[in-house]
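Comment thread on ticket #2218

A.B. wrote:
> Attaching the input chain for the structure job we discussed in standup.
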Amino acid sequence: MSLHIRPATPADVPEMLAFIRELAEYEREPQAAVATAEDLLRDGFGPRPVFQCLIAEWTEGGVTKPAAMALYFPFYSTWRGNAGVHLEDLFVRPEFRRKGIARALFARLAAIALERGDRFQWHVLDWNQLAIDFYESMGAHMLTQWRIMRIDGEALKALAAQSN
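C.D. wrote:
> Ran it. Output below, let me know if you need it in another format.
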């Protein structure tokens, strides 16, 4: 048994979409996963990539299978004056859980974050206590004073129209 973590390539896009849809199912919002292969190719592998992705492959009995994905992108802290990494999605397929794959992906992302700055962050659903406990076991702490704000859909279009 062995684990190999590597950067995703354009050939991984179909598997990335499968991971995204499996994560959406797990998070109880399958209808929200509307990304297409074209979206991922454009935004992750085009002339101006806005995200990067790691693929974790598990080999057992001579057979290698895609086990997990971690999709992330950079951000910048004006207060700290340096960059960090924001993890958008990490998903380990159920049959590969409890093998250290998620921890290995987090360790790789922590190393990437240190190469770029000094911060690594992500969001977690408030009902996902299993994930929260796992994150805290690695030393993560929850920022309870902050709330995520979002404008999308028609409200985003209406606000953007005010810029004319």
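A.B. wrote:
> Thanks. Noting for the ticket: The chain has a mean pLDDT of 96.
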